[in-house]
Design brief:
Rossmann fold, 2 domains, seven-stranded mixed beta sheet, nucleotide-binding
């Protein structure tokens, strides 16, 4: 079982013919992802050879979906053109758009997210008629052994029964590696920008509904109130054990750390406040990623 992505997912790559898109398309194919096409209007009708696998290039997302039945797009389009690329995907009504691109203007992200919502964007596990957006500025998501949509290394873990949702890409990788002996049902990197599509709560809902996820690991970071809202949701709706980690305990006030959304303002958005909110909801919170992994292992081992 998996959330949002599985072995039957048919994936296209917007920006596949650029250097970054080429590199990660090759890696995704190596992980078993069923990549059925790329999108580049200037190279439509051509194809790219990835070590013997010919991947056709289409002029639009709509054409790629019509010709291949694609239901997932991974966006590697440069920041200046990313808004147009995501809106194109939304207009084509592709079910899932994974926006990897870093450095998209917050105004652009807000615009395409508002547009997605106006078109019925999927935000809950139950889904909706529109496009679910993951990201932007995220590592994507992986269902080990089935499919990988993004830039998460496919060889650091195995299929298992832990669900992972994380704001941070590098901490996603570290947690997957720390718990590689147990393995993951799915791991979702939602990104740390101020405006994102799929949230901690959306992933928590999906993992709660997934019969093959026994425990959820949630990684947050300073800034905003997403973790506090997730804590409220966990308290009211999640029956499975949740283990958490919040990055940024030593971050200075008023300084942006890493992600554009990771900034502490006064007493709002601190790691300590988030830790306390999660613990009040029954979440065991580690002080380091390694300690968090140990907490998860202890719960699963009974």
């Amino acid at each position: 079982m998996a959330i949002f992505l599985n072995k039957d997912s048919k994936v296209i790559v917007q920006g596949m013919t650029g250097a970054t898109g080429m590199k990660h398309t090759k890696l995704m194919l190596g992980d078993g992802t069923n990549i059925v096409g790329g999108v580049n209007p200037r190279k439509a009708g051509t194809s790219v050879d990835f070590d013997g696998t010919e991947v056709p290039v289409f002029g639009s997302v709509a054409e790629a979906m019509e010709k291949t039945g694609a239901n997932v797009t991974v966006v590697f389009v440069p920041p200046a053109f990313a808004k147009a690329a995501v809106i194109e995907a939304i207009d084509a009504e592709i079910p899932l758009a994974v926006v990897i691109t870093e450095g998209i203007a917050v105004h652009d992200s807000a615009a395409f997210w508002a547009y997605a919502k106006s078109k019925g964007a999927a935000t809950s596990a139950a889904g909706a008629a529109g496009t679910r957006i993951i990201g932007p500025n995220c590592p994507g998501l992986i269902t080990p052994g089935q499919s990988n949509a993004g830039i998460i290394p496919g060889d650091i873990t195995k299929p298992g029964r832990i669900g992972l949702v994380s704001k941070s890409g590098t901490l996603t990788y570290q947690m997957m590696y720390e718990l590689r002996d147990i393995g993951f049902s799915s791991a979702v990197g939602i990104g740390g920008d101020p405006v994102i599509g799929t949230t901690h709560i959306d992933a928590l809902e999906a993992f709660e509904a997934d019969p093959d996820t026994d425990l959820i690991v949630m990684i947050g970071e300073i800034g905003g109130d997403a973790e506090e809202r997730a804590a409220d949701y966990i308290k009211a709706n999640v029956t499975k054990p949740v283990v958490g980690y919040v990055a940024g305990f030593t971050a200075p006030e008023g300084k942006t750390m890493g992600h554009a959304g990771a900034i502490v303002s006064g007493s709002s958005g601190t790691a300590q406040a988030k830790k306390e909110a999660l613990e009040a909801a029954g979440v065991k919170v580690g002080k380091t990623p390694t300690e968090t992994a140990k907490l998860a292992r202890a719960i699963l081992n009974g």
